[in-house]
Design a protein that fits this description.
Blueprint: H1 3-18, E1 26-28, E2 33-35, E3 38-40, E4 42-47, H2 57-66, E5 71-75, H3 78-81, H4 96-105, E6 109-115, H5 144-163, E7 174-179, H6 192-206, E8 214-217, E9 227-232, E10 248-253, E11 264-265, H7 269-281, E12 286-293, H8 327-340, H9 342-347, E13 351-356, E14 359-366, E15 370-377, E16 384-388, E17 391-395, E18 399-403, E19 411-412, E20 420-427, E21 449-452, E22 463-466, H10 471-475, E23 481-490, E24 503-509, E25 513-518, E26 521-527, E27 535-541, E28 546-555, E29 573-580, E30 586-588, E31 593-598, H11 601-605, E32 630-636, E33 645-648, E34 655-659, E35 662-667, E36 694-695, E37 704-707, E38 717-723, E39 733-747, H12 754-759, E40 770-774, E41 781-791, H13 810-818, E42 823-827, H14 830-833, E43 843-851
Parallel strand pairs: 4-5, 4-12, 5-6, 6-7, 7-8, 8-9, 9-10, 10-12
Antiparallel strand pairs: 1-2, 2-3, 11-36, 13-14, 14-15, 15-18, 16-17, 18-19, 20-39, 21-32, 22-31, 23-28, 23-31, 24-27, 24-29, 25-26, 25-28, 29-30, 32-38, 33-37, 33-39, 34-35, 34-38, 39-43, 40-42, 41-43
Helix pairs in contact: 7-8
C-alpha cells in the first residue's frame, strides 16, 4: 500500500474513534460553523510549524488537544516556502503537509491561514524578497504583477493540500482557510484600489474550490461569502458584517511579542479567561488563541524590525514546549465548561438580562432540557452578589461564571483551580564538555577558538557606486550586513589637523544598527529601536595626513512586517555622511564613490558551520574579549535526559549563533530594557493592553536562546558565534529547563472541579472543590510535600507561609494522599481538614516536589 493509503486508513481509524466524519460538508449560518449539518462551538489555538521543529510537533499538538482545543491554526509562510522564485521548499521545519497530517492524526481540525501576507512578526510580513524586484509591482493593492504572484502562490498551497486530500471536503482536517490578513487596518491608505484588490482577493480565493469557508480577519467589508472575523484582546463586542455570518475571533492575543530593547510583556490568565467567556456569552462560536504555543524565530525569520528571537508570547505552551501553569490548566477548565454548554450555545441566540450596573446574564436554551447561562460582572472595582433563576451567586469583579445547566457554577474566570508550576533554568555542568576539557562539578567553561572578521572590504564580489545605496535593495536580505567603504585624502595643512583638532563624523541612517570604523578602528556605534529604527551617529575621530579609510557596517535586524506600504521602508546608510572640522569646515562624503560589500567574509567562507574549514584555521590562543567582529567556535556533547536546552548568552553583545550549522537566531543581550514600567504583580481587572503587564526592566530583553535537542548529536556538536559588538565567550553557558516545584491553591468558594461536576451535572448542591496536582512528566512522581496549609495561607508559589488560621492536619493528610503518585486530588473543605476558624472562607495551599 502506498504511503498516502496508509495515512488515509490511519486517519479513518482516528476519525471514527473521535466521531469526526470524513468528506465533511463545512458551511456556516448566522450562529456557527456547520460541519455535516451540525453547528459547532469551536476552540482553536495557533501553533506555527516553523517556529518549532518536526520532532516537537506531536507533543505540541497533543498538549493542545489535552488542553481542550478542537482546531490548530497556522499561517503559511511564503518566503519560507519560495525563497527563490519558482523554487519551493517543504522540507524539515517547512513541511506543512506533515504538520497538517499530524494535526489530523491527533483528531483535530486545521485552520489554514494562507494569507499570503501574514504579518506575524515575521520577516517582511512573510513576503519573499524577490517579490520586491518584480517589475512594476505594488504590494497588496489592485496591481496586476502582485495579483499574479499572489494567486500563483495561493493556488500552489491549495493544490498541495488537495493533492494530499487535506481539505475537509476531501476527508481531511482543514475546515477553514484565510485569504489576506488584517488588510482592513490599513486599506484606507490604498484608496479605491484597495477596495478593488480585496474584492479580487475574495473572488480569487473562492474560485479555488476548496469546499470549506474562507475568512478575512479585520476586514469589515469582506465580500460575501467570505466571513469577516475579529482580532484583538477582546472581541465580545464584535459584530459580523452580515446577519448570515457567524461571530468568529481569529486572534485572541495571549500575551505580546518581545522586542530587542523592550520589557517582557505578559497577560494574566484571569483576563484571558474573562475575555473568552465574554465572547461565548455574547454569541461567539469560534475562538482562536494567538499564540497557543509561540515558539522561536530561528535564523532570520523575525521581522518588525527589532523583534527578538524568542516568540514565547506568554502562551499556554511556552517556547520550549512546556505547558505554562496555571495558564494552560485554567484555560483547559474554561474549555471544558464551554463544551458542557455547546448544545445550548449552538441552538439559538441568547436572551439577555441585566442584573444591575455592570452585571449581566445571558441564557441559551436548546429545548426544555438543555440550558446554559453566563453571569458577568464587568465592573473592575468590587465583587457582587447577584440573584439569577432564584439562586444567589457571588461574582468577583471582572469575571464571568459559566452555568452549564443554568443552576450550578462549573467555572468562574477569576477563580483559578489549576496547579502552578515553577521552572528553573540551571547551568549544565559536566554533561557538556569540549574535547580537551575534563569532567567537573562546576559550571562548564567551553574551550574556544576564533577567527577575526575583516574590517571593511574583503570579498571579491565588491562593487562601486556613486552615492549611498539603500540597504534592502542592495542586499536583497541575503545578509544582515552591508559594508560601505570610502578612502579620502587629507593634506597636512587641512583644518582637520590644525592643532590636533578632532573631526566630527556625522552619519545618517535608516537603521537598524550601525558601526563606524576609521582606519580599521571602531570609532562609534548606534542603534535604533522598535519605535524608530533610524540611527544618527556623531562621533569624534582623529584623521591622519594622507589616505584615511572610512568603513561603515550597516546592520538590519529583521525587515518591516506591518503597515501600509511597509515594503517601501528601507534601511541602511542613506546620509548625509560628513566630516566637520574647526570653524565648521565640512566635507560631504555622501555623493562620493563608495565601495560596497554585501555580507561578511565569514559568511562567504561558511564559518557558521556550513564549511569544511579545518580547525587549524581557527586560533585557540589569546581569545579576544570585548572586541567587535569576532567569530568564536567551541565543541560540546549533548547532555543526557530530555529537558529543554538553551544557551545563556548574557555575556555577549550582539550577533548570531549556530549549532551544527543551524541558526538559533539573532542575539542581543547588550540591548537592555528601560529601568521603569515594570511591577511585581499585575491586576487582571480592567482592559488589558500590551503595556499593562511588564517584567524584566533594566535587564537584557533576551539572554536565553532555545537549542532544539533534535539539532544536536550525542557527541561532537559545534557551536559557532558571530560577535558583532564585543563580548566574553567565557561567560556563555548551556542551561536546561527543569521543574522546580509544583503548587496549587484552591478556596472553599471555588467552583467545583469539572470532572466531578460532569459526573452528576443535575445536582443542585455545590460539590466540594478539589485541589489537583500532577507532575508534568509521565516518569515523575510527587516525592515530597514542601508546604501544605488549610486556612488562611499567605504568599505565592515558592513563597507560601501559614496565615493566622491554619489546620494542624494539612501536611500529614496531603502527604498521605499524594506522596509517591504522579497525580492526586484533595477535597478542600472543613470535613477533610477540620475547621480551624469557623465562619471564615478558607483555602488549601500546597507546594510539592516531583522527581523521577
Amino acid at each position: 500500500m502506498k504511503q498516502g493509503g496508509v495515512w488515509l486508513c490511519y486517519l479513518l481509524l482516528i476519525a471514527c474513534d473521535l466521531g469526526i466524519s470524513l468528506a465533511a460538508n463545512v458551511s456556516y449560518d448566522h450562529r456557527a460553523l456547520v460541519i455535516d449539518g451540525k453547528r459547532r462551538i469551536l476552540i482553536s489555538g495557533s501553533i506555527h510549524y516553523p517556529r518549532s521543529t518536526p520532532e516537537m510537533w506531536p507533543d505540541l499538538i497533543q498538549k493542545a488537544k489535552d488542553g481542550g482545543l478542537d482546531v490548530i491554526e497556522t499561517y503559511v509562510f511564503w518566503n519560507l516556502h519560495e525563497p527563490v522564485q519558482n523554487q519551493y521548499d517543504f522540507q524539515g521545519r517547512k513541511d506543512l503537509v506533515k504538520f497538517v497530517k499530524m494535526v489530523a492524526a491527533a483528531g483535530l481540525y486545521v485552520h489554514l491561514r494562507i494569507g499570503p501576507y501574514v504579518c506575524a512578526e515575521w520577516n517582511y510580513g512573510g513576503f519573499p524578497l524577490w517579490l520586491h524586484f518584480v517589475p512594476g509591482i505594488e504590494f497588496r493593492t489592485d496591481n496586476q504583477p502582485f495579483k499574479t504572484e499572489m494567486q500563483r502562490f495561493t493556488s500552489k498551497i491549495v493544490q498541495l493540500m488537495k493533492q494530499e486530500q487535506l481539505f475537509a471536503s476531501q476527508g481531511g482536517p482543514i475546515i477553514l482557510s484565510q485569504i489576506e490578513n488584517e488588510y482592513g487596518n490599513i486599506d484606507s491608505a490604498y484608496g479605491p484600489a484597495g477596495k478593488l484588490y480585496i474584492n479580487w482577493a475574495a473572488s480569487m480565493a473562492t474560485a479555488q474550490n476548496t469546499g470549506v469557508p474562507w475568512v478575512m480577519c479585520q476586514q469589515a467589508d469582506a465580500p460575501d461569502p467570505i466571513i469577516n472575523t475579529c482580532n484583538g484582546f477582546y472581541c465580545d463586542q464584535f459584530t459580523p458584517n452580515s446577519n448570515q455570518k457567524p461571530k468568529m475571533w481569529t486572534e485572541n492575543w495571549t500575551g505580546w511579542f518581545l522586542s530587542f530593547g523592550g520589557r517582557v510583556p505578559y497577560r494574566p490568565v484571569e483576563d484571558i479567561a474573562f475575555a473568552v467567556a465574554r465572547f461565548f456569552q455574547q454569541g461567539g462560536c469560534f475562538q482562536n488563541y494567538y499564540m497557543y504555543q509561540g515558539g522561536t524565530n530561528f535564523g532570520h525569520t523575525s521581522g518588525g524590525p527589532f523583534i527578538a528571537t524568542s516568540y514565547d508570547y506568554d502562551a499556554p505552551i511556552d517556547e520550549y514546549g512546556i505547558v505554562r501553569q496555571p495558564k494552560w490548566g485554567h484555560l483547559k477548565d474554561l474549555h471544558s465548561s464551554v463544551k458542557l454548554c455547546e448544545d445550548a450555545l449552538a441552538a439559538a441566540d441568547p436572551t439577555f438580562t441585566s442584573l444591575g450596573p455592570n452585571l449581566e446574564a445571558h441564557m441559551y436554551r436548546a429545548g426544555p432540557e438543555k440550558c446554559a447561562a453566563f453571569l458577568a460582572n464587568v465592573g473592575t472595582q468590587s465583587d457582587q452578589t447577584v440573584t439569577f433563576n432564584g439562586n444567589s451567586y457571588h461574582l468577583p469583579a471582572w469575571s464571568v461564571s459559566i452555568l452549564p445547566d443554568c443552576k450550578n457554577v462549573a467555572f468562574n474566570s477569576a477563580k483559578i483551580n489549576s496547579q502552578i508550576t515553577r521552572f528553573e533554568m540551571t547551568q549544565i555542568e559536566s554533561a557538556f564538555k569540549s574535547e580537551v576539557s575534563s569532567v567537573s562539578s562546576v559550571p562548564l567553561q567551553l574551550t574556544w577558538s576564533w577567527i577575526p572578521e575583516p574590517v571593511g572590504i574583503s570579498k571579491s564580489d565588491k562593487f562601486e557606486r556613486d552615492g549611498l545605496l539603500e540597504q534592502v535593495n542592495t542586499t536583497a536580505d541575503l545578509s544582515d550586513y552591508l559594508w560601505y567603504s570610502l578612502s579620502i585624502g587629507i593634506m597636512g595643512n587641512e583644518s582637520f589637523l590644525v592643532n590636533g583638532t578632532q573631526a566630527v563624523l556625522h552619519i545618517g541612517s535608516l537603521g537598524h544598527a550601525l558601526h563606524a570604523f576609521v582606519n580599521g578602528k571602531l570609532v562609534g556605534s548606534g542603534t535604533g529601536n522598535s519605535e524608530n529604527a533610524k540611527v544618527t551617529l556623531e562621533t569624534s575621530v582623529v584623521l591622519k595626513p594622507g589616505n584615511n579609510v572610512i568603513d561603515l557596517l550597516s546592520v538590519t535586524v529583521g525587515l518591516q512586517n506591518y503597515g501600509a506600504f511597509f515594503d517601501k521602508k528601507g534601511a541602511g546608510v542613506t546620509g548625509p555622511v560628513t566630516f566637520m572640522g574647526i570653524q565648521n569646515h565640512t566635507i560631504d562624503l555622501s555623493k562620493k564613490q563608495w565601495t560596497y560589500q554585501v555580507g561578511l567574509k565569514g559568511e562567504e567562507l561558511g564559518l557558521n558551520g556550513n564549511s569544511d574549514m579545518s580547525d587549524t584555521q581557527w586560533s585557540s590562543s589569546d581569545i579576544p574579549i570585548n572586541q567587535p567582529l569576532i567569530w568564536y567556535k567551541a565543541n560540546f556533547d549533548t547532555p543526557d535526559g530530555d529537558d529543554p536546552i538553551a544557551l545563556d548568552l548574557g555575556g555577549l553583545g550582539k550577533g548570531e549563533a549556530w549549532v551544527n550549522g543551524q541558526s538559533i537566531g539573532r542575539y542581543w543581550p547588550s540591548y537592555s530594557s528601560p529601568q521603569d514600567g515594570c511591577s511585581s504583580s499585575c491586576n487582571y481587572r480592567g482592559a488589558y493592553n500590551s503595556n499593562k503587564c511588564l517584567k524584566n526592566c533594566g535587564m537584557p530583553s533576551q539572554r536565553l536562546y532555545h537549542v532544539p535537542r533534535s539539532w544536536m548529536t550525542q557527541k561532537g556538536n559545534t557551536l559557532v558565534l558571530f560577535e558583532e559588538v564585543g563580548g566574553d565567550p567565557a561567560k556563555i553557558f548551556f542551561v536546561k529547563k527543569t521543574l522546580g516545584s509544583l503548587c496549587a491553591q484552591v478556596s472553599e468558594s471555588h467552583p467545583s472541579p469539572l470532572d466531578a461536576w460532569e459526573s452528576d451535572a443535575r445536582r443542585e448542591q455545590r460539590l466540594v472543590p478539589e485541589l489537583r496536582l500532577e507532575c508534568p512528566s509521565a516518569n515523575q512522581v510527587i516525592s515530597s510535600i514542601k508546604f501544605a496549609s488549610f486556612g488562611t495561607p499567605k504568599g505565592t508559589c515558592g513563597n507560601f507561609s501559614h496565615g493566622w488560621c491554619s489546620s494542624q492536619t494539612a501536611l500529614d493528610l496531603v502527604s498521605k494522599v499524594c506522596t509517591g503518585l504522579r497525580s492526586c486530588k484533595v477535597g478542600v473543605s472543613s470535613k477533610t481538614f477540620g475547621d480551624p476558624c469557623k465562619g471564615v472562607v478558607k483555602s488549601l495551599a500546597v507546594e510539592v516536589l516531583c522527581s523521577v
